[in-house]
Amino acid sequence: MNGSREKKGRYDNMWARPEMNVVFRAEIMPGVGRAERTFRIEQVLNNGRVTLHDFPGEYREGAFEPLNFLREKVS
User: Fold this and answer.
1) Which of 20, 39, 46, 48 is placed for a possible disulfide with 52 were both Cys, Cβ 3.0 to 4.6 Å?
2) Is the pLDDT assigned to residue 56 strictly greater than 70?
3) How much is the pLDDT for 28?
């Protein structure tokens, strides 16, 4: 391909998607349980940051626990 990259879709290389749940790292919200640190993404911005439903501000990937897609998987 002569070293050129194929153009990817808007979310192909994003760490988050609208409406998925994310959990703030415990260090950011000390003394707060996991359930209270869990929020749903409202919007993914062009700069890779996200806004959350019912929680003000913009946040980057590093503010949240690493994503574990198998956590809620039922065996």
Assistant:
1) 39
2) yes
3) 94
pLDDT above 80: residue 1: no
Place of tokens 């590093």: 62
Please give the backbone phi and psi of residue 48, each rounded to the nearest 5 degrees, phi first.
Answer: 90, -10
Strand partners, 43: 51
Q: What is the mean pLDDT of residues 32-59?
A: 96
Q: Which long-range contacts (CB under 8 A, 24 or more apart) does 54-61 make?
A: 61/15, 61/16
Are 43 and 51 spatial neighbours (Cβ–Cβ below 8 Å)? yes
Distance CA(64)–CA(73), nearest Å, equals 20
Q: What is the DSSP string of 43-61?
A: EE-TTS-EEETTEEEEE-G
Would you give the distance in Å from CA 60 to the centre of its chain?
8
With tokens 């879709």, the residue in question is: 9
Q: Which residue has the higher pLDDT, 60 or 6?
A: 60
